[in-house]
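Researcher: Predict the fold of Phosphoacetylglucosamine mutase.
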Amino acid sequence: MDLEAVSKRSAFHAKPQGLILQYGTAGFRTNAQHLDHIMFRMGLLAVLRSKQTKSTIGVMVTASHNPEEDNGVKLIDPMGEMLAPSWEEHATCLASAEEQDMPQVLTTIVEEEAVDLQQPAFVVIGRDTRPSSEKLSQSVLDGVTVLGGQFYDYGLLTTPQLHYMVYCRNSGGRYGKATIEGYCQKLSKAFVDLTKQASCSGDESRLVKVDCANGIGALKLKEMAHYFSQGLSVQLFNDGTAGRLNHLCGADFVKSHQKPPQGMEMQSNERYCSFDGDADRIVYYYCDTDGRFHLIDGDKIATLISSFLKELLLEIGESLTIGVVQTAYANGSSTRYLEEVMKVPVYCTKTGVKHLHHKAQEFDIGVYFEANGHGTALFSEAVEMKMKRLAQELEDEKGKAAKMLASIIDLFNQAAGDAISDMLVIEAILALKGLTVQQWDAIYVDLPNRQLKVKVADRRVISTTDAERQAVTPPGLQEAINDLVKKYKLARAFVRPSGTEDIVRVYAEADSQENADRLAGEVSLVVFQLAGGIGERPQPSF
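Model: Structure tokens for Phosphoacetylglucosamine mutase follow.
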């Protein structure tokens, strides 16, 4: 490792004095002007991680649903999963090191992780459509090359597509071909095979209108359109030709504002969905005959998918373990419906995709979605092989169900939550079950809920347990929340510190919107009083 060459090259990507950023669930994210040094250093780190794992590592330049002026970067581990936690710490140390200390930090990582520097390294890189992404991805490649790493630049990709490419390259092609064409062919073949079984697909035109958040999803859906033109008609809005990335559009906007994106005229009895800026989240919505907006979020997506998978398993007669993984933010009605009506076990983890993904891997079939629309389904290798074998061997109803399940396994991007893949799964299931979007929405009624934020001097005063559903500190806070919850029907509430800023997030649900709002306001006030609130005091509505 030529540390002198690294230091010389690093001078062209100098770190602003005193700037400290933390590698979180989504990697690094901030204003694009502050990221040049971080990109260079993540190129260095990707080479070391590749040498240590003897695998291809991915580097994605994106800030997902953040505003257009922001950017970010995250590393992708060999099986398409998120970077290992110990390497997240290395990323933070390396990014935060002052210029003169950086060579020593690199040396420490090599020693601690027993990196064989003679091992070759290979890194693949992708980027979203932000104006800053191309230049920042060049800074990553600068870091890769100065340490002697080989690379392949995919250029413009959705984040899930890069996860897919990494997984393909490290599975010896077993998972698929590591090209855009390979991705499109795998998903479209599975979709067409699946929707062939739908009795109504011939006479009913299946149209879905997609808000692409003025991001990369529009480009990639256009590339794919001709692959599945028979089974599905896709109309794009906010496709990046006008309008700013994520501005008044995209999955995050629709979910948080509970209203349609700009530039989309809604009509009743039509299906709509929104991607986020890097196409790893999806939410559905529609407008009823009275003109009211209805959101279908990640909870209802997980319910549709897991219920369908459970039905297929019952048809096939296989006793496989299936589990749905949620966070504390999942609506209580979805949990009750899954457990009591569908008899599907539900598990709760801490917020953050890596926790959900990890838990979902414990089952033969694990489905996870956050309420924000980020999620997928995971299938064990044994399930995959068994379904493909049964699909070939059996000609009866069991064989038909096994064929469907084999196609669904191929249709999911098991490396990461993927808005394109998830949309195709949802559209296929709706066609196969002959469901309208209103019928899907009606499978259960969401409990009214409210989310609020409270500014605090130091978010670390709050610690939680039980998948973030119980506050451990400060003393007395959980007891106060319990007393407030008892006042309302079907109520629950929890608080958790933000992972990135000094705010505490408050969630409350109850039998009516008025009661959910009241409970959220009252919990916010006790957080302000007991956890060192700053700024404006919350005003609960009494």
